[in-house]
Task: inverse folding
């Protein structure tokens, strides 16, 4: 998982922590972890996702995605137009 800042300008702040995780998951991963119960559920499919999360902590949001690329997921997390 990639840790990133939702506001890239905070990267240089001494006490700021990354607050976004970007990751790739497959349908099988979601199913194995209990996020999906029904094989016909298409809520979470293969792709890149992001959620808010401080390092070493549980996520603070549900996952957003899927996105085709890691950079597209990160841009969405940072509200950057591509």
Result:
């Amino acid at each position: 998982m990639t840790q990133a800042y939702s506001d890239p300008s905070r990267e240089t702040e001494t006490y700021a922590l990354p607050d976004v995780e970007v990751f790739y998951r497959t349908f099988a991963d979601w199913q194995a972890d209990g996020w999906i119960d029904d094989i016909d559920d298409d809520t979470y499919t293969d792709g890149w996702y992001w959620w808010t999360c401080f390092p070493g902590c549980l996520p603070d949001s549900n996952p957003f995605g899927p996105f085709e690329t890691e950079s597209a997921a990160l841009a969405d997390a940072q509200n950057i137009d591509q």
Remarks:
- The chain has a mean pLDDT of 91.
- The chain has one domain: 2-77.
